[in-house]
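Reviewers of the previous submission asked for a worked example of the structure-prediction workflow described in the proposal, so we include one complete record here. The input consisted solely of the amino acid sequence. No template or homolog information was supplied to the procedure at any stage.
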Amino acid sequence: MFRKFILDQVPCIVKIENFKLQVPLCIKQGNDFLSCDSEKNIVDWYFQDDGSGRQRWIIDFDETSASYTIRSPWNQRRSKATYLGAPNRNKRVFLYSSNSNFTKWSILPIPEPNHFILRYIGCQFAPKDISLVVARYSEDVDWTNAYSDILYLYNKKENEVAYNWRQLPNIGREGHTYLHHIITNYQNLSKQIIFTQGDPFEHNETFLWGIDHYNRHFDVQPLGLVYLRQNNIPPSFIENELCIKTDYGLNYLVMNVNGNLLTPLFNDPGIDELNRNFREDPYHFEFCNKSLMETFLDMCQLSISKDVDNIRFTYSALFSCQNYKIKKYSVETYRRIMQVLVSRHSQGGVYGYILERLWLHMFED
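From that input alone, the workflow returned the following structure tokens.
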């Protein structure tokens, strides 16, 4: 009933009747309609126009690059990616977030009426320039297929291994995964690395805009927005006040907390409980005069000159970083952090939450 849209070596000839810009229209190959899935990032050739709108496309011309963009008005997916692109070597066509270097097409007419040669002329992902590191347990990670050339997908769910997944023991949450990637690839890290949990969209629905425009990031780029809206963390008024909106579609939030991970802006019961658990653990009695962050840094033998009572963090450990920032610290330092992370609890416990709030503080100047 359908076949995937893959660009091969022969010209891709399509039929576009009544070709006009900025008007929803059908693109056909033979008798099949170019289509997209209602939820997943799947672009295929479907046998009929089902009337849903998934077989309609809007073509625009970008004068700056002398190229076309092809986007779907269907926006029911959680990621809202709509622009056709084929930036990976496998030439699979997926949808990307917006008009970018990865969504440029050439559309050339041929003598046969209403027929055109469709050719991808955008960029491809370069693994030496950018990597996407994903810490997965049981999340649906189909969204990562669009980034296969730059993907490091680390899976921690036992007895569930798929092609090209890297299996890790289920310890230390996402912090352990990030540290493992840094330690294992320390000598050949990409110029820039994007770090994320398996489902970034519940923490930032604009996350894909951050990937597709990675070349516009700061050297250390926060990518988190909220913890969970259903838990009202942070409260909506804080999100509205602190949210930073970029001109390329990414929204993110940075919050300042003290050494005990507390903010004066609102009360977070989870952080209050974390502090209680930390103070009640006899193992930490010798650090009773120090904050959580100071204690963790001491245990890791990690010296940071910045004020540990004024920490910038972004929710859910979503961020990107240039490799020279990572290499401020030795590989031995990252090994010590990993050792401390799982020293009291296999999943990191309190230390995992401290590390989540440490990344920006470590890497930013």
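Residues 78 and 136 are 18 Å apart (CA to CA). We consider this example representative of the routine output the project will generate in years two and three.
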